[in-house]
Amino acid sequence: MRKMIVAGNWKMNKNLQEGIQLVKDILEVSADLKADKQVVICPPFIHLASASELVVAKDNLYTGAQNCHMEASGAYTGETSAEMVKSTGATHVIIGHSERREYFNESNEMLAAKTNAALSNGLNVIFCCGEPLEIRDAGTQNNYVEEQIKAGLFHLNLEQLNNIVIAYEPIWAIGTGRTASSEQAQDMHAHIRSLIKNHYGDDAAENITILYGGSCKPSNADELFSCPDVDGGLIGGASLNAADFHGIIAAMLAQ
Ligand code: 13P
Hey, what CATH class is 4-253 in? Predict the structure, then answer.
């Protein structure tokens, strides 16, 4: 069964008190979610235990980390393992966000290893891909995203793929106010689904959730989410405000 998901990526925003308040505000406004229409809140690591405790009683509302380390433990100052993430009650982790690829030099190899660490600790992975503006302008975005998907995911078996959500986030649309048109989003999502189909077969392609990310907001969520291959969104800025996030959740529930 293909799920729709709205996930909020808070990035490096909100101190602990502000974060707890935002989770409470989201809980207050969050409408009836369903097994096939879920919400995931991804705050910074410091909020994860408190946020997980707040959402634990709410069906189909989950928490996730924005990153994890690929090693199980050891002398990696400042890092957080997948097992530590899991121990907070979080169920998801974002891997391969473009900001991590760019600012923290996360290579495809590292991202494949992080994906393995997350899966082996029972976490669901929201695996990000997406092209920079120069690639979009050159018209080679399909090949670019194909390489990211192959390098990050294609070593997984079919069973492991069940715990993967793909997020397509064109870098030129992140935090810029510039959104991919619904045609651009649909075209890329259909391309990603065809890659999954060629490698894993029809059922896997039909079942995998593919999210759109990049300046998604209440005013454009409905149009984006109504594309046949867009199964929800990974939301940055608009996830920091409960009313906006609720508007996006409402767009998912209306599909
Ligand atoms: P914005 O919604 O702020 O453009 O961010 C998108 C994103 O990077 C989510 O991971």
Answer: alpha beta
